[in-house]
Structure prediction request, 136 residues.
Amino acid sequence: MRHSNQKRERGLLKHGGSRPSGLSREKALCYRLCRFPEPRLMSVDADTVRRIAHLARIAVREEDIEHLKGELNAILAFVEQLAEVNVEGVEPMTSVMPMKLKQREDVVTDGNMAEDIVKNAPATADNFFLVPKVVE
Prediction:
């Protein structure tokens, strides 16, 4: 992982940018990825950022669109990188620690509380709720 970070940092200089003063190495890598995203299959444009913000009910200023576009493209690039992992023969897991989940017997019951459940209902018959007719 260290070597890929060094390559990315070198890529920062390759694209004509330099690390802005005051940024740590990690933030500079993020800065480069957001500013100079690598070509990828999945990408987000400015209209998609606006649509995502609208759907999420988030107010986004117009000057923040480009920055968010870079961040979303960096996230999508990471997801694509995960898709490259060979998982052939790897069993699905429910936990990082091997364990067997406790299971109860699969039996249908009524809970034996029918009277308690309908006790506060305005109208009942034979432990069923009575409701007014709504469809003719």
